[in-house]
Design a protein that fits this description.
alpha+beta, Outer Surface Protein A, domain 3, 5 domains, four-stranded antiparallel sheet, 23 helices, RmlC-like_jellyroll
Length: 654
């Protein structure tokens, strides 16, 4: 299902068939019993999911947990929702799911039995493999019988391991699924699904994995002592079963003992922004434990030594002779270094190359746009087809019927302005409106001190010259070309009649003035144009006088502010924290933490701000996950610690 749809519009509810098992370290494993799917969460994450006991949308729950101060980090929140929905812990209305039935298993086995005998047999098998001379089977056809007997014993050992593991799992309170014969294998065996072990204690999990290898290692030790000719396949099987990588039985045992359960929100990312290599690396580092890494390295080195010993024994060479040779280490060191460098390049090469490609492509587009603006010819950009495409893509004119857009073009005339030329002066009376076909312009306001301050940068599809019509409080504006500009010039009355009258003054002002202002801001630059337009529509322009306090420290925060014109000072006590000009914003920390303001904000001169109410701000933020991530990151940087979850460092939280 579409990620954006799940995170913004779909109604989800907590599956009533969820079973919960508490583990050590404040971790719980949730099991969707009918579908046999599992989700590992923290206690805070489980409490968050319980908000869906009553059907709700993801934005509704996010607003609720922000207001009651129980929100987890937003990347974790969205990852949790997607993982829970795919595991069936959260379900859509009228969603159906498969029904996986557990099988009855009548013989339980105390976990200590396979742990003790399994590890004793493992030690015995490894010792014999290293110390006993290697025995090859007799030549064909006599040796074929030896290999066949060893193969049959190996099949029985693998089947017995699965059966003992199932008995151990039942003893620990787990369920058995999918018992079946796996016939299409080099070594056919009877197997069962042991995924339910994650719902049991550490002792049971170690016992289950120990039971898996116990019959094979025990048989290998006995054969290597009494009948080595039958043990060739068991030697290979022991090396494969004990391998330190994925699929080996020792790795999950080390994970259970030294790392514990891994949260599903920290692995195999589902939320698309979490798939970036930097984020995956961050989550990967977060789940690393030094003791576990050391145990994996020790086991990996031990397995490599075991493999080397078996190979050397099979070729009638001594381990001491090879490892004690300086020539061997000189040659092997080169190969080890090459393998390490190759692994590092494979690990970091792809994400680094992708990051460079994305940056290069964005830079290339900027250069192409700049060259197009400086080299555009009037006859190319002012032909009817090009103008029709431009107006159809414009947020302002796409709302008009095609016939109305065509009539608008007929009544306009193209005009060319040189780079850096003054298109409109402060003293000029606004009688015409320009629609930019190519190029960029800057709009300036005159402040009370007489200083001209740049407030807008406009590009293709934007409109200049409509300030007197749409912004009657500040009708004076100066417009200067930043590049060669080609524009359609339209009488102000025509623009008012054919555009403003159809859209309404508030919406026209939002699209003509607020949208170009907002999309230049750093935190809005990556938004979809429709999101920027919606953000502009929920804002109000409020003017403040010089030396007026906009926000007072420790007072309840109910708005989010973006400086539209002028400058403000952010301070705490007598200490000035920052000075913000047009595009600067404040108030988001108090809204996201549902707390009081953490600083004073007062004007340095006459100021106008775009003001967003708390309800509108939270509604917009919760329906736009990328916006929420940006605001959380910026707020965390300003605070000097993570914004979520709230802790003793958060303001007025006790």
């Amino acid at each position: 299902m579409d990620e954006q749809l799940v995170l913004t519009a779909q109604t989800l509810r907590l599956n009533p068939n969820v079973q919960r098992a508490d583990m050590s370290g404040g971790v719980s494993v949730l099991k969707n019993v009918p579908a046999r799917r599992y989700l590992t969460v923290t206690l805070d994450q489980w409490n968050l999911l319980r908000n869906f006991a009553t059907p709700a949308t993801v934005p509704d729950v996010l607003r609720a947990v922000i207001l009651n101060r129980s929100c987890v980090p937003l990347r974790e929140y969205y990852e949790l929702i997607l993982k829970a929905q795919r595991a069936g812990v959260l379900r859509l209305e009228r969603q159906t799911e498969p029904d996986e039935r557990a099988r009855r298993w009548a013989v339980p086995l105390n976990a200590w039995v396979p742990i003790i005998f399994g590890w004793l047999s493992l030690i015995a098998a490894v010792t014999l493999l290293i110390t006993r001379p290697f025995t090859w089977p007799a030549p064909f056809p006599a040796g074929a019988l030896d290999v066949f007997i060893g193969w049959a014993l190996l099949c029985l050992g693998l089947s017995a391991g699965s059966a003992l593991a199932a008995s151990t799992l039942v003893w620990g309170g787990g369920e058995i699924y999918d018992p079946k014969l796996n016939l299409i294998r080099p070594t056919p065996y009877f197997g069962v699904n042991l995924e339910d072990a994650c719902m049991t204690s550490r002792l049971t999990q170690v016992g289950v994995w120990s039971a898996k290898f116990m019959p094979v290692t025990l048989t290998a030790a006995l054969l290597w002592w009494y009948q080595p000719a039958w043990g060739l396949l068991h030697v290979i099987a022991v090396l494969v079963i004990l391998r330190p990588g994925a699929g080996g039985v020792i790795t999950p045992i080390l994970s259970v003992l030294f790392r514990g359960q891994i949260l599903d929100t920290h692995k195999n990312m589902s939320f698309s922004p979490n798939r970036r290599w930097k984020i995956r690396l961050k989550f990967g580092v977060a789940r690393v434990k030094a003791v576990y890494v050391a145990a994996r390295l020790v086991w990996g080195a031990a397995w490599c030594f075991l493999l080397l010993s078996v190979v050397l024994n099979a070729t009638d060479r001594k381990v001491r002779e090879v490892l004690g040779s300086g020539e061997y280490w000189r040659e092997a060191g080169q190969y080890f270094a090459m393998a390490a460098i190759g692994s590092l390049l494979v690990f970091i090469g792809r994400p680094v190359a992708r990051s460079l490609w994305v940056r290069s492509r964005a830079r290339y587009r900027e250069i192409v746009q700049m060259l197009h603006r400086w080299g555009a010819k009037p006859e190319e950009v002012s032909n009817p087809d090009a103008i029709a495409r431009l107006l159809a893509d414009s947020l302002i004119f796409r709302r008009l019927p095609p016939a109305e857009r065509a009539e608008l073009v007929k009544r306009a005339k193209p005009q060319v302005f040189k780079a850096w030329s003054l298109i409109r002066k402060f003293s000029d009376k606004s009688n015409e409106v320009g629609i930019i076909l190519s190029g960029g312009v800057a709009v300036y306001r005159r402040m009370k001190s007489g200083r001209a301050e740049r407030v807008l940068e406009l590009g293709e599809g934007d409109v200049f010259g409509a300030h007197a019509l749409l912004d009657t409080g500040r009708p004076e504006a100066q417009v200067r070309a930043l590049t060669p500009v080609i524009a359609l010039i339209l009488p102000l009355e025509e623009f008012q009649q054919r555009v403003v009258a159809k859209l309404g003054v508030p919406l026209a002002n939002d699209l003509v003035h607020k949208v170009p202002f907002l999309r230049r801001l750093s935190f809005c630059r990556s938004w979809h144009p429709q999101a920027v337009a919606r953000f502009a529509q929920i804002s109000s322009v409020i003017a403040y006088n010089e030396e007026e306090t906009i926000v007072a420290e420790r007072q309840d925060s109910h708005q989010f502010y973006v400086v539209y014109e002028g400058r403000v000072i952010v301070s705490r006590g007598k200490r000035i924290l920052s000075r913000l000009g047009p595009g600067g914003f404040f108030g988001e920390i108090g809204l996201l933490q549902n707390s009081s303001a953490i600083a004073d904000v007062r004007t340095k001169e006459n100021v106008r701000c775009l003001v967003f109410s708390k309800a509108d701000f939270l509604r917009f933020m919760t329906h736009n996950p990328l916006v929420g991530l940006q605001l959380e990151e910026i707020s965390s940087q300003r605070l000097g610690h993570p914004l979520f979850p709230l802790n003793s460092h958060s303001f007025d939280v006790r």
